[in-house]
Design a protein that fits this description.
GO terms for molecular function: metal ion binding; peptidase activity. This is Acetylornithine deacetylase/Succinyl-diaminopimelate desuccinylase. It holds the Pfam family Peptidase_M20. InterPro entries: Cyt/Met_Dipeptidase, Peptidase_M20, Peptidase_M20_dimer. This protein is of the alpha+beta class. It folds into 2 domains: 288 residues, Aminopeptidase (3-Layer(aba) Sandwich); 122 residues, Alpha-Beta Plaits (2-Layer Sandwich), CATH 3.30.70. It is 34% helix and 21% strand. The protein contains 14 helices and 18 strands. Strands 1, 2, 3, 6, 7, 8, 15, 16 and 17 form a 9-stranded mixed β-sheet that branches. Helix 2 crosses helix 4. It binds ligand BES and manganese (II) ion (2 copies). One manganese (II) ion binds next to loops.
């Protein structure tokens, strides 16, 4: 198979414009999974992908779930391990839409100030561009040689961004069909625009939405102010107490199961030469927040945190209204590492809030997410081959990194299917995922497609099972 690789890579280069056009078609579909109004678009994205896989020789279909559908495709290949590839076709909401310099679902190729070519649009980096790198690599193998180097199953999800709970049950119900030797997840980043990476650590996440109710209706703040409880004050007091002044989370039991990083990983991360000032500077900051005595990279990859993601209540419209609201709300999330137990932390949070509540107030909770931190093996034969293939493509040694974000499925592959996952992606820190003007560098897209072409070839050589 490796003797065909040069032809496959040449085909990828020659076909790049069409690969970009295909990505544009997918990005145009407004598959926002958190908003029920876009359920039709989610289905449309799933159908588009099933058709795309079908067109390159996969046996593919859209599979209903109680939520947004899955896409599953299978293609035979040469001797070698059978891999299960995962990506997600759903995207984040686009608001605030007026901060986009072009419409989020009208993708376009632009040349940035630094000279790099970038594909701009919602989902270009998270995760449509990324999942398309793999599909386009398969397309090229198929076009040049008529088949794939190794057997492949593709699993594409539509609820990653909305913390959907349908994936693990779907895996459970379709164990036979999803059986493989290991899984690839393409939803992470490179070290920088020139240095490829595999990610072996991810943080988990627990989300909680809370509503505190005090009086039975909104009140005049002159008539009642001083006598009636203000739920916004109760809420901010609750939220403020979640962390001490050093950024440590105060919930009882929160640090149960959090270990110190092994020295070897610490040393390897130090050798990466992370530029803290540049990382913060790129988003207009200069002073690291959070736990004292830890490096920025340790904070984002290996330490748990608590963040308030949203807070509302009372009057925030134009002008002024003297009101004591009946209700106050917040969305809070915790990033988890190591052995922290998501459900124990959820319970600890709820108990803490209830204990702080005055007797004449009530609280309601809505739980979101709930995935543990993930640590993957970093020395399997498949990983070594993958790293070598990435090094060959990018001309710089592939590094092993962590990521602060969460990909709930990473833990499920092991738990439900018994598969180790390998996380390989081509995103960059400045891709603005989840933000206005999300982009994916053309070098990520092109290099990503070429990388997968090489990885598939490398895995077909020798044994990695
Ligand atoms: N692709 C991201 C996670 C990610 C971001 C990994 C950056 C590596 C680097 C994923 O789509 C995501 O946004 N996950 C959510 C999960 C949540 C909604 C359950 C997250 O991390 O907030
Ligand atoms: Mn993602
Ligand atoms: Mn995301």
């Amino acid at each position: 198979m490796t003797d065909c690789l040069d032809d496959v890579l040449a085909h990828i280069d020659a076909d790049l414009d069409k690969s970009i056009e295909r990505l544009f078609r997918l990005v145009e579909i407004e598959s926002i999974s958190t908003d029920p109004d876009y359920a039709g678009a989610c289905l449309q994205a799933a159908e588009w992908l099933a058709d795309a896989l079908d067109a390159i020789g996969f046996e593919a279909g859209v599979r209903r779930t109680p939520g947004h559908p899955m896409v599953v495709g299978r293609a035979p290949g040469g001797a070698g391990p059978h891999v299960l590839f995962y990506g997600h076709y759903d995207v984040q909401p686009v608001d605030p839409v007026d901060l986009w310099s072009s419409p989020p679902f009208q993708p376009k190729l632009v040349t940035a100030a630094d000279g790099s070519k970038q594909i701009v649009g919602r989902g270009t980096a998270d995760d449509k561009g990324q999942l398309m790198t793999f599909i386009e690599a398969c397309r090229a193998w198929k076009a040049v040689t008529g088949s794939l180097p190794i057997p492949v199953t593709v699993l594409l999800e539509g609820e990653e961004e909305s913390g959907g709970h349908n994936l693990a049950p779907f895996m459970e119900a379709n164990k036979q069909e999803l059986a493989a030797d290991f899984a690839f997840i393409c939803d992470t980043g490179m070290w920088d625009a020139k240095t490829p990476a595999v990610t072996t650590m991810l943080r988990g996440m627990v989300g909680e939405e809370i509503t505190i109710t005090a009086a039975s209706r909104d009140l005049h703040s002159g008539m009642y102010g001083g006598a009636a409880r203000n739920p916004i004050h109760v809420l901010v007091n609750v939220l403020d107490g979640l962390r001490d002044e050093t950024g440590r989370v105060t919930l009882p039991g929160f640090y149960d199961g959090v270990g110190e990083l092994p020295e070897a990983i610490k040393a390897q991360w130090e050798s990466l030469g992370f530029d803290e000032a540049a990382f913060l500077g790129e988003v207009g900051l200069s002073i690291p927040a959070g736990e004292a005595g830890r490096s920025v990279i340790e904070k984002i990859w290996a330490r748990p945190t608590c963040e308030v993601n949203g807070i509302w209540g009372g009057y925030s419209g134009k002008g002024f209204k003297t009101v004591i609201p009946s209700k106050a709300n917040a969305k809070v999330s915790f990033r988890l590492v190591d052995q922290q137990d998501p459900e124990a932390i959820r319970e600890s949070f709820r108990a803490y809030v209830r204990a702080k509540l005055p007797a004449d107030c009530t609280v309601e909770f809505i739980g979101h997410g709930g995935s543990p931190g993930v640590r993957l093996p970093s020395d399997s034969p498949a990983l070594v081959k993958t790293r070598d293939a990435l090094t060959a493509e990018w001309g710089k040694p592939c590094v092993t990194i962590g990521a602060g974000g969460s990909i709930p499925v990473a833990g499920d592959f092991k738990k439900v299917l018994g598969l180790d996952a390998l996380m390989v992606g081509f995103g960059l820190d400045d891709d603005r995922i989840h933000s206005p003007n999300e982009k994916y560098n053309l070098s990520s897209y092109h290099g990503g497609i070429r990388s997968w072409a090489r990885i598939l070839a490398a895995l077909s050589e020798g044994s990695v099972k």
